[in-house]
Design goal:
Blueprint: H1 10-33, H2 41-65, H3 69-97, H4 106-125, E1 132-140, E2 143-150, H5 152-178, H6 181-205, H7 210-213, H8 217-235, H9 242-249, E3 255-259, E4 265-268, H10 270-273, H11 289-292, H12 297-301, E5 309-314, E6 319-328, E7 336-342, H13 344-359, E8 363-367, E9 373-376, H14 380-383, H15 388-391, H16 402-415, E10 422-430, E11 436-446, E12 454-461, H17 463-507, H18 513-535, E13 544-546, H19 548-557, E14 565-569, E15 574-576, H20 578-596, E16 601-607, E17 610-615, H21 643-654, E18 656-662, E19 668-674, E20 682-683
Parallel strand pairs: 14-16, 18-20
Antiparallel strand pairs: 1-2, 3-4, 3-7, 5-6, 6-7, 8-9, 8-12, 10-11, 11-12, 13-15, 16-17, 17-19, 18-19
Helix pairs in contact: 1-2, 1-8, 2-3, 2-8, 3-4, 3-5, 4-5, 5-6, 6-8, 17-18, 19-20, 20-21
Length: about 700
């Protein structure tokens, strides 16, 4: 390879190599220092920009030093690549730096490289002289230099690169205009790093340069490199960029305001602009905060204000509530930061739950590990007559009946030992009038929850339920005593009568013997039903989730149903005493077969709040539906009138309401509706919707 040089050109070549080393060093430094940030568009673009500068400077130096024309053209091709890389990287950096990195999609980047690729192919192949019409050499100061005349594609390519640089400058100027001081310095440095080489290149393109139109663009990259180095070291060019503000501040759900010492707005985000009634929201910047947001004026001028202050702002459609926090910036006390958090929805939720708590029939109490009341819901005023604020700080034990106190203390401290453990218990508690009320409490240990820091007690007044239970037990005891007497007093003479009947059959042939035996059997059945009702009545054992379809099938097999048919439409379990609901279903099936005939069709299913049993038999007349659930009511000669009465009592024991109505196909329908407490059976002549 033949080299050429003159004393005049050597300093310039030295500057070119210096520019190459400076740009290459910046690229290497950026990759090493920002290893974790190489995925950031700004960092990648900055590396590409400096690599392009290094290629352009070094290749142009080698082109000047080379004497052979083919060698010069080869280095000129490398300079071409460097110039394209500089322009594309500069454009990408400006777009990403200004917070518009969404524009840098793969599709956009592919479109941007189409023109440079076409131009490079035309440049290297000289196809149709579209890129360069003529390539000659000229001798200037004993140096052989390339002299080109551009073709159509050459001018298009140069204007294309200038267009990318002009767009880059536009993005940076917009950033300078809209950003605060630190971002303005950064963007200004990048803009200067673009502007100096661009001016040098325009001078070369217009053939205004010395020494045969020597290109000073690569040398101008020395200025760019120094500017970038200062921007990185002193102004954190790659550490903090406006894109962070766009991605975070502008998209914050909370309002963001910066005001200066004169109470004028210096910066504001979109969340605030949405709540300002102004034809031009951008005009907020520079205006007095009192004119923009008069509601915060008192907050920023009150030095003794709390850390958080709530204000109400009337917008076009409604009133919004904001939590305002004012902070002075640590690095510049001339400015104050206002954070406005919209708490309207939060207040609505809080008010809703507050209303639910205040109007609930249940009590919510929070006690600590020493049983001291830390919170009492307002509903206690309606339930027990206490002022909730008067209870806080008092021991919960003092309101519990002395006979239940030890058991309750053990329940709170033993059953709730583990975090989040729950327990249920019943006891007596004193109301404001000194009366003892029966309550049921579900406790949950939330001592480890920092927002609760206590044991939460959900208490329900079950006094009326307990009264009913005691009344039912009393009646059942009385009925049991009565049934025992009746059973004893009736069975003795019945046994005697049955014995005489057997003796009479042996001695006398009489057509009435069968009728007498049938009467004896009916008496025996009545006695058994009375005993069953007396012994079990409304008494319900432990309830649990029961597979309703399985229980229905069991009950059907326990009854002599003959040719009757059954359909079950159940999509959920029910909570019941399985033995008692089995007995309830058996009695209903017997009733359907007895009154509907051997071919009756029975349909059973669940509804939203209970279940039903219906048939397609003759049904129950409206005027008799009041009586079918009473003792002794029957329309069959062989019936005792206790079957449906037992059904009613089992339902009542579960706390279910019973509704007797017309079935879907005209038969009888019995509906059982779940309720929290036992209720009186309900009878209605109108058929409800099917389950």
């Amino acid at each position: 390879m033949t080299w050429q040089y003159t004393p005049e050109i050597l300093p310039y070549v030295g500057l070119l190599f210096l520019s190459m080393l400076l740009a290459g060093g910046l690229a290497v430094y950026t990759v090493v220092a920002w290893t974790d940030g190489t995925e950031e568009p700004t960092v990648r673009a900055f590396v590409g920009l400096n690599v392009g500068c290094a290629l352009w400077s070094g290749a142009y130096a080698m082109q000047l030093l080379s004497a052979a024309v083919p060698t010069k053209l080869s280095w000129l091709a490398v300079s071409f690549v460097g110039a394209v890389l500089v322009s594309l990287s500069c454009f990408s950096f400006a777009v990403a730096y200004s917070g518009n990195e969404g524009l840098l999609s793969r599709r956009t980047l592919l479109l941007l490289v189409v023109e440079p690729v076409v131009a490079f192919v035309l440049f290297t192949t000289q196809y149709g002289n579209l890129y360069t019409r003529r390539i000659d050499t000229v001798v200037v100061s004993d140096l052989v230099m390339i002299d080109r005349t551009f073709g159509v594609m050459g001018y298009v390519h140069i204007l294309y690169l200038y267009g990318l640089l002009a767009l880059s400058a536009g993005f940076l100027l917009r950033t300078i205009y809209r950003s605060n001081r630190v971002y303005r310095v950064q963007a200004g440095a990048v803009l200067l790093g673009i502007f100096v080489p661009l001016v040098a290149n325009v001078v070369w393109f217009l053939r205004l340069g010395p020494m045969g139109n020597l290109d000073f663009t690569p040398v101008a990259f020395v200025v760019s490199g120094l500017v970038y180095a200062v921007a990185i070291s002193r102004h954190h060019l790659l550490d903090i960029v406006p894109v962070a503000r766009t991605a975070v501040v502008e998209n914050m759900r909370d309002g963001f305001l910066v005001i200066d010492e004169t109470d004028r707005v210096r910066d504001v985000n979109a969340a605030v602009r949405r709540h300002v009634s102004d034809d031009d929201p951008e005009s907020i910047v520079g205006r007095d905060i009192g004119a923009v947001f008069p509601e915060v004026t008192s907050v920023i001028r009150d030095e003794s204000r709390p850390a958080h202050t709530e204000i109400a702002v009337d917008t076009d459609d409604q009133r919004r509530l904001f939590d305002v926090q004012v902070q002075r910036l640590s690095n510049d006390h001339r400015f104050r930061l206002l954070l406005l958090r919209d708490v309207t929805d939060q207040h609505a939720v809080e008010q809703r739950y507050q209303a639910l708590i205040e109007n609930a029939s249940d009590l919510i109490t929070v006690i600590d590990d020493e049983n001291v009341i830390r919170y009492q819901s307002p509903s206690i005023a309606n339930v027990l007559g206490y002022d909730p604020s008067a209870l806080e700080g008092r021991s919960y034990d003092e309101f519990v009946h002395p006979e239940d106190r030890a058991r309750i203390v053990d329940a709170f401290h033993d059953d709730l030992e583990e975090p989040a453990a729950t327990g249920r218990t019943e006891y007596r508690i004193r109301d404001a009038d000194g009366e003892w009320r029966d309550v049921e409490t579900v406790g949950r240990n939330l001592l480890d929850d920092p927002f609760v820091d206590g044991i939460v007690l959900n208490t329900r007044d079950v006094t009326e339920r307990k009264k009913r239970e005691r009344e039912i037990r009393r009646k059942n005891d009385q009925l049991g005593e009565f049934a025992g007497v009746v059973s004893h007093d009736l069975r003795n003479p019945l046994t005697v009568a049955q014995g005489y009947l057997e003796a009479a059959r042996e001695d006398v042939d009489c057509e009435y013997h069968d009728d007498i035996e049938l009467a004896h059997d009916r008496i025996e059945t009545i006695i058994e039903d009375v005993l069953l009702l007396a012994r079990e009545g409304q008494a319900i054992g432990e309830t649990d989730r029961v597979d309703f379809e399985r229980v229905v099938d069991r009950a059907w097999t326990h009854v002599d149903t003959g040719s009757a048919s059954l359909t079950v439409a159940s999509d959920r379990p029910i909570v019941a005493d399985e033995d008692r609901i089995l007995q309830l279903l058996e009695n209903l099936f017997r009733n359907s077969v007895e009154h509907g005939g051997g071919d009756v069709h029975v349909r059973v299913g669940t509804v939203a709040d209970g279940f039903f049993v219906e048939d397609d038999g003759p049904g129950i007349p409206v005027d008799e539906r009041q009586d079918v659930l009473e003792y002794g009511h029957t329309t069959a000669d062989s019936g005792t009138g206790f079957g449906l009465a037992i059904v009613s009592r089992i339902a009542e024991g579960h706390g279910w309401a019973v509704r007797v109505t017309e079935g879907t196909n005209g038969g009888a329908r019995f509906e059982f509706t779940m309720d929290d407490s036992p209720v009186t059976p309900t009878l209605d002549g109108n058929a409800p919707a099917d389950g």
